[in-house]
Design a protein that fits this description.
This protein is mainly α. 60% of the residues lie in helices and 0% in strands. It has one domain: Orthogonal Bundle (ADP-ribosylglycohydrolase fold), CATH 1.10.4080. Helix 9 packs parallel to helix 14. The structure holds magnesium ion.
Length: 333
């Protein structure tokens, strides 16, 4: 383990925003269509076809990640009650972009006065809405795996209480924690760390994470087809083109994309968006992990500087939040 640099904190946060904003205009499209938008990897954003958003608009994944990041910076600790309170204005003020059903139901319960401990949407709802936002917890608690897993599970419970959602949120925060604090990535110890933290929440999900080295050694398209169906009952087909918002294939394909080319941000994010489906989320998660490992210099500057949330909370604001989090952890530097 090495002390994370400030550039890796910034790379994680802006890496997520860039992956999210690249995927947003083609969310839900099949692989054949999403692949053309990242081949070659673009140096500018295309606007969403609905015409309502500026190019570079990111979505709920990064909006909710930003709420967690802001809470950590302002509270100086993981405070699920404060994080839950920061989710509410995104809905109340109509700011949330591409909202998920389970998350919306949970936030409506928060708005009705229900505690964060009781607000989460229960099983069998098992979308990726909590895994997509936990990257800042991996930055904050990279050197305390026990506290990290507890924090990621608690922050998941605000909206998603299915054990698979808890395991997915823990897995992504663990992947960020490992990526930001290591100078080399070998699949075996990386997966051991991620699966080890996820296992107490859902052993079956952890076993699928441990299968990743074998998927990495097999034919790529066959591996992705298996990942698309991972965690579904035998015979059930995914109900989305590409990667669905079900948390198990989402987490697996993002870890796969990162491990396929750990040292190359554009290749990892381009690959995962080219698989189609819920690509704002898969782009966001892969971008966060790869950005944490490779640092902000690996994220194309023309894209990083163009991310936006309706002309607010762009490059400068996200960079400042990431730097403040790093400075909180390194008060003497
Ligand atoms: Mg989204």
């Amino acid at each position: 383990m090495v002390p994370p640099s400030i550039d890796r904190f910034v790379g994680c946060i802006l890496g997520q925003a860039v992956g999210d904003a690249l995927g947003f205009p083609v969310e839900g499209w099949p692989a054949e269509q999403t692949a053309t938008t990242v081949t070659p990897f673009p140096d500018h954003f295309t606007p969403h076809p609905c015409g309502l958003f500026p190019p570079g608009q990111y979505t709920d994944d990064t909006q909710m990640m930003r709420a967690i990041l802001t809470s950590l910076v302002e509270r100086g600790r993981v405070d699920p009650e404060d994080i839950a309170a920061r989710f509410v204005p995104l809905w109340r003020d109509g700011e949330i972009v591409g909202r998920g059903g389970a998350t919306t139901a949970a936030v409506l319960r928060l708005m009705a006065g229900i505690s964060w401990r009781e607000s989460g949407t229960p099983a069998p709802q098992a979308g990726n809405g909590s895994a997509m936002r936990t990257a800042p917890l991996g930055l904050w608690l990279y050197d305390d795996p026990t506290a990290l897993a507890q924090a990621a599970a608690d922050v998941s419970r605000i909206t998603h209480t299915d054990p698979r959602c808890l395991a997915g949120a823990v897995a992504i925060s663990a992947a960020v924690a490992y990526a930001v604090s290591h100078n080399t990535i070998d699949a075996s110890p990386f997966i051991g760390f991620v699966a080890g933290l996820a296992r107490p929440y859902h052993a079956g999900f952890a076993a699928l994470i441990e299968h990743l080295p074998r998927w990495l050694e097999t034919d790529e398209s066959a591996a992705v087809q298996e990942i698309r169906r991972a965690g579904l009952p035998p015979g059930q087909r995914p109900d989305w083109p590409g990667i669905s918002p079900f948390v198990i294939p989402t987490v697996l394909v993002c870890l796969y994309a990162f491990l396929r080319t750990p040292a190359n941000y554009c290749e990892a994010v381009g690959f995962v968006i080219a698989q189609g489906g819920d690509v704002d989320t898969t782009g966001a998660i892969t971008g966060a992990i790869s950005g944490a490992f490779n640092g902000i210099e690996a994220v194309p500057e023309s894209l990083a500087r163009a991310v936006t949330d309706r002309c607010r909370y762009g490059y400068d604001e996200l960079r400042a939040l990431a730097e403040r989090l790093w400075q909180l952890e390194h008060p003497s530097q």
